[in-house]
Amino acid sequence: MDTNLHANQLDQLIDRLSPLWADPRERNLLAKMVQALDDRYGLSGKMALEPGVADILAQMTGRLAGAFGNLSGLRGLKILDIACGSNSSRAPAAVHVNTPFGKLTLGRPPKGYTALFEPWFCRMLIELGADPVGVDMGDLEREAFTHHRADLGQPGALDFLPEHSFDALQDSRLFGSPEFTAQFPRSADRLQVAREIRRQERRLLKPGGILIHSDALDLVG
Ligand SMILES: C[S@@+](CC[C@H](N)C(=O)[O-])C[C@H]1O[C@@H](n2cnc3c(N)ncnc32)[C@H](O)[C@@H]1O
After folding, report:
1. 170 lines ligand 1 (CB under 6 A)
2. 74 CA from centroid of ligand 1 (Å)
């Protein structure tokens, strides 16, 4: 694919997401973030191969808009992403994406490597000046954000993080991931882990901190 087509991919994504903000400074931040994701991680090439990458970014951007309003307000915030994705993560058979512009289900993703579940949320947060911390069992070795490899299926896996130390956090798509469903085929066991993740989320958030998204909350309340 030539350079013009790559630039087109980026422009289309920026045009799709810009209406989330009326303020030109916020739109400018968004455009800079998308460009940085392309420069550092080859975003446009990945969107060309897997268009669903753009939908995942739309979903994550929508979550930030919903939780914080302005992107500029993220500067300096410490944000935990539980099961943040990695450079070795696999895709489930069906991927449901709730973007600010509607819900969609991605076509069957590749069985092996997929760019869908690289750690896009933490990468976006770094570009926006936040201080993300990602936890996952996959490969995060070359990532620029603070990251920890942990088995979230083990009780107490997040105990090493100090209590009330995060301004915001999310857990997203751990429970339906192929790695997790293989580890915990019984739904009762998955619910047990969801209860533990919720306990940790309550423990780790600062008073008044923001729960950006929690599948665990949807599962166990
Ligand atoms: C589908 S990806 C989700 C990525 C991103 N959070 C999102 O919403 O798009 C699921 C992630 O959960 C991680 N994972 C699955 N089981 C895990 C476990 N027991 N401990 C830690 N991470 C796990 C996988 O490595 C993968 O990166």
Report:
1. no
2. 24
Spatial separation of the C-alpha atoms in residues 29 and 173, rounded to whole Å: 27
Domain total of the chain: 1
CB-based contacts of 66-72 (< 8 A; 24+ apart in sequence): 66/100, 67/168, 67/210, 67/212, 67/213, 68/168, 68/210, 70/21, 70/23, 70/26, 71/21, 71/26, 71/29, 71/30, 71/33, 71/128, 72/25, 72/26, 72/29
| Ligand 1 touching residue 89 (CB < 6 A) | yes
Cβ of 117 closer than 6 Å to ligand 1, yes or no, is yes
Other residues' Cβ atoms within 10 Å of the Cβ of residue 146: 15
Structural domain span for residue 57: 3-220
- The proportion of the chain whose per-residue pLDDT surpasses 70, expressed as a percent, equals 99
DSSP 84: -
How far apart are the C-alpha atoms of 221 and 78, rounded to whole Å? 24
pLDDT in tens, 167-183: 999 999 999 999 999 99
Over the stretch 124-140, which tens digit does the pLDDT of each residue have? Answer: 999 999 999 999 999 99
State which ligand 1 atom lies nearest to the alpha carbon of 157: 20
**Which CATH number belongs to the domain containing residue 209 in this structure?**
3.40.50
